[in-house]
Amino acid sequence: FPSESKLVSMGLGHEEGFGAPCLKCKEKCEGFELHYWRKICRNCKCGQEEHDIPSSNEEDRKVGKLFEDTKYTTLIAKLKNDENPMYKRNVMILTSPVPAKNVSINTVTYEWAPPVQNQTLARQYMQMLPKEKQPVAGSEGAQYRKKQLAKQLPAHDQDPSKCHELSPSEVRHMEQFVKKYKKEALGVGDVKLPGEVEGRADENNLKNGDRGTSSTVGAMEKSSSQKASQYSCYHCKQSMMEGDPAVYAERAGYDKMWHPGCFVCCTCNELLVDLIYFWKNGNLYCGRHYCDSEKPRCAGCDELIFSNEYTLAEGQNWHLKHFCCFDCDCVLAGVTYLMVNDDPVCKSCYMKNHAAICQGCHNVIDPEVQRVAYNNFNWHATQECFLCSCCSKCLIDQKFMPVEGMLFCSVQCKEKMMS
């Protein structure tokens, strides 16, 4: 009995958000249950980010760990009795003006806002985002932010303890990789007014060494009357107003700026969550897609591959131990498998869960035998199955008339059967 209870507690500890409903599958999913090495629900096969998991400190811990040992330590704090730093997320609460007494005060809480001292600037920034992406507590935008945090900044891209059974060598390579991207690519966008930055651009770029560009220096020399027309978004190339907030990325140089809604990953085109970006070769990336541009990612466990040995199958990369059947997890090396929705499935599971059913004999159709498919109906391509539903004439290589899963060789047979 003691060992049994120990196993249960370990399982519950592993499954943050256990039982949470799936926002995609609704009632078809019994509730979130994390697979022991895939980053998906065992019940519905959707990702953790597709489930309505109550907010916890886990996301703030993850971002806190990301900013550890970087220049962004002002955005984190260490709590007592907790060795991991916590992300000091800037929450903004706006109160509507109350015209009279005895009127309830309306407040709007943004679950995240740019960490600027000027709240008017932060409010302007929020209003320039698409409505459905504004992280107002309890809204579609808050759900969007939560989903992007999980998608863009996977914990298993920076923390070896969140990965499945890494060898000491893989842990070492991962730690070196994380240290390198924190030093060379990671950044947090600054929200400022273009006029504010213009006066300090030269100084900032000198601090950034080779990040300063001749275009910045050139921009500095223009007269203030010309400056307004010089502001354009690095992403959409459209002009920017001097009184509107712009987003700057220090690693890109302060001669570049973005509209709030244009500060997106160059790969997935999603808003960079909490303005956290990775800069590479003149492009902004989210964490996930920056890592994908540097390392192969296992299609089975979603982790980056730090081993020299891995397999390439169906145009995707896999850890050797993770090239498994998506249904039963058996290893597929040297085994016949089929692809179902881009996932490999062993033949046994395919026959049990995915194979087409013959309208003639009502048995499953082996994927290696010939079949006839019409609309959503299937038949064995044999004289015994592909027949006229009235006179049983074989219809292989013959004209036929389909009616709701039935086949007819002639109008007469169809009329006879339908009457």
UniProtKB/TrEMBL annotation:
Subcellular location: Cell junction, Focal adhesion; Cytoplasm
Family assignment from sequence similarity: Belongs to the prickle / espinas / testin family.
Name this polypeptide is given: Testin
Alphabetized UniProt keyword annotations: Cell junction, Cytoplasm, LIM domain, Metal-binding, Repeat, Zinc
InterPro entries: LIM3_Testin, PET_domain, PET_testin, Pk/Esn/Tes, Znf_LIM
GO CC terms, sorted: cytoplasm; focal adhesion
UniProt keyword Cytoplasm, yes or no: yes
Domain PET: 91-198
